[in-house]
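Supplementary Methods S3. Complex input for the zinc ion-bound model.
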Amino acid sequence: MTTKEVIQGELGLGKVSSRRIELRLRFWGKIINMKEKNRLVYKIYRQRREDFIRGKKKDKNNWCYWTWKFLKDIDLEHIWESERFEPGQNFHNLVRKLIKKRDEDEWRENMRKRSKLRTYRKLKDRLVLEKYVLELEREQRRQFTMLRGGTNKLRIETGRWEGEREDDRVCNVCLSEDVENEKHFLLACPMYVNERGEMYERIKEVCELEIDQMNEDSKLQILIGIGWRNKEKEIRRIVLSYIKQALKIRKKFI
Ligand SMILES: [Zn+2]
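Predicted complex, serialized as structure tokens:
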């Protein structure tokens, strides 16, 4: 099962509730800035706001509570207090940006707690849709997500199911003492050295990039992360072909 945080990350989704919060805050902005102050909705709002303040901002059943709290959560409490701001698109954009940032912070915090997201955390920092999700076919997309998101059949993950210590989840393909994690599979396992060499050669041709000279983290970023310049699509195709071949070899040994 792909981790919730990975799905959220790959699709670039904020929290489901965020859209509603955004709409609520917009609506609130509209009420505050109504030109006709004698309209019923405005009058009711003023009344409820007074009640809310009188109750020391504790009454969760008061409509004002959630508007106040959501604004407070995104550091705009002062706007709730002063009611002084430019209504319209600027306000909407600001609210959207701050809610997105809050979602991102929360998402990063959740990722920090999950050991299987060791690779993913390095690859992904922003909540934006990954192009490969739209580009690739189902099976390829699945493989790519599995490698990025840590939900895969490598020993680092299956060993976890069996309760092994992380250091003990070594590679059973090359029988080295190296842990079989995403990095080992992609960049290091000697059993796929030919396939890897071919992958680097092809990338060298397409990107004019000496990828084999780079450090591990940069390689990882180029292969299954941000890619390289505008060649990400080609790189993905090359990497997928490596994955396919390597998995075929791996299957023979495990
Ligand atoms: Zn190995």
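Residues 171, 173-174, 176, 178, 180, 184, 189, 191 surround zinc ion (CB under 6 Å). The mean pLDDT is 95.
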